[in-house]
């Protein structure tokens, strides 16, 4: 058998394996399940969840002795009906089939927005009679508790209901979030944890080598692909920057680490097009590729529309420049050339929105 045929067969084999790995592994795919079987699954979920009422809340815990909110749902689904749900609240939200409140049944999930930025941040298992079980981190009662959707706190922070049992076609004509979105994710835990973070900023500085005064340095746009973790979220992206201060166009490649929703640190190499000059002079300088740029961004709480977040951001970054012979610049010229502030808007949206 020649090499070309072997490569073709390997290509198709790898494709089939990857396709199987990406298939959703929950009961949506089981359109052949009878109503009786689905009802049994729901009862098992509720019975299992009730066993852990009173267990303590521990951030990141997935049982059996302690839980956080998504850890409880994750553990109960796995233990009771051998369903592997995504691990985080936001991924569960994207994974679930969002349903109208009128279709809410015991064994479905209820989601809440409990943080200042308006994002989906809490999940519980609905057990009927307007009650749900969840792992609460604060309030008068913490740990795994039974709560009512009629309680003022939960009623005002309620976001949506979702299901992961049964045939997803049941609600194709009647799915809508209270927040106005009708998204349901891809069904793949990895993809549902990915999101895009795009921003547009104007760049400025407070001094040049000759004088202290605010000055316009240019415009930048960034696009980052981020994998959402529980506390730290790594990202990879690029920036397009017209650096008016040094009169050149720059393309940094950014490796980012997001600390929650409000802080991001990043660094990476920088590729520069054109000749660079020290600000406010005609002295030629040379942009360094690596080390290239390092920076930190601070974001405000977001304005949220469905799953799209819009935030104001403030960025502080430093790019490395040298003399044309490779020698280091003086500290003052280095700071005047490389230190910049960027102010603008950040827009975050989940990866799965492009597959709706």
UniProtKB/TrEMBL annotation:
<dbReference type="InterPro" id="IPR051202">
    <property type="entry name" value="Peptidase_C40"/>
</dbReference>
<dbReference type="InterPro" id="IPR000064">
    <property type="entry name" value="NLP_P60_dom"/>
</dbReference>
<feature type="domain" description="NlpC/P60">
    <location>
        <begin position="39"/>
        <end position="165"/>
    </location>
</feature>
<comment type="similarity">
    <text>Belongs to the peptidase C40 family.</text>
</comment>
<dbReference type="InterPro" id="IPR038765">
    <property type="entry name" value="Papain-like_cys_pep_sf"/>
</dbReference>
<protein>
    <submittedName>
        <fullName>NlpC/P60 family protein</fullName>
    </submittedName>
</protein>
<dbReference type="Pfam" id="PF00877">
    <property type="entry name" value="NLPC_P60"/>
</dbReference>
<keyword id="KW-0378">Hydrolase</keyword>
<keyword id="KW-0788">Thiol protease</keyword>
<keyword id="KW-0645">Protease</keyword>
<dbReference type="GO" id="GO:0006508">
    <property type="term" value="P:proteolysis"/>
</dbReference>
<dbReference type="GO" id="GO:0008234">
    <property type="term" value="F:cysteine-type peptidase activity"/>
</dbReference>
């Amino acid at each position: 058998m020649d090499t070309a045929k072997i490569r073709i067969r390997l290509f198709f084999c790898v494709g089939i394996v990857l396709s199987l790995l990406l298939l959703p592994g929950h009961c949506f795919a089981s359109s052949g399940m009878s109503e009786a079987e689905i009802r049994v699954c729901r009862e098992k979920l509720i019975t299992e969840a009730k066993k852990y009422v009173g267990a303590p809340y521990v951030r990141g815990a997935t049982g059996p002795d302690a839980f956080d909110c998504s850890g409880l749902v994750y553990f109960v689904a796995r233990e009771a009906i051998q369903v592997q749900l995504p691990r985080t609240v936001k991924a569960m939200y994207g994974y679930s089939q969002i349903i109208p409140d009128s279709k809410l049944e015991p064994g479905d999930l209820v989601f809440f927005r409990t943080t200042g930025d308006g994002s989906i941040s809490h999940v519980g298992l609905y057990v009927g009679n307007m009650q749900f079980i969840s792992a609460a981190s604060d309030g008068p009662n913490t740990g795994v508790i039974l709560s009512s959707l009629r309680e003022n706190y939960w009623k005002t922070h309620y976001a949506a209901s979702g299901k992961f049992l049964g045939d997803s076609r049941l609600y194709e004509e009647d799915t809508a979030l209270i927040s106005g979105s009708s998204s349901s994710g891809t069904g793949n835990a990895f993809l549902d944890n990915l999101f895009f973070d795009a921003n547009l900023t104007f760049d400025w500085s407070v001094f040049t080598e000759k004088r202290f005064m605010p000055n316009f340095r240019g415009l930048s746009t960034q696009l980052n692909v981020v994998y959402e973790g529980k506390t730290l979220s790594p990202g990879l992206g690029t920036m397009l920057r017209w650096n008016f201060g040094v009169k050149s166009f720059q393309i940094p490649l950014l490796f980012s680490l997001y600390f929650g929703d409000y802080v991001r640190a990043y660094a990476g190499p920088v590729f520069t097009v054109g000749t660079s000059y020290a600000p406010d002079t005609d002295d030629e300088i040379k942009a360094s590729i690596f080390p290239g740029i390092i920076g930190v961004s601070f974001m405000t709480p977001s304005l949220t529309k469905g799953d799209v977040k819009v935030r104001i951001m403030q960025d502080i970054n430093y790019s490395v420049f040298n003399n044309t012979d490779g020698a280091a610049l003086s500290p003052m010229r280095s700071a005047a050339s490389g230190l910049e502030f960027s102010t603008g808007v950040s827009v975050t949206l989940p990866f799965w929105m492009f597959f709706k």
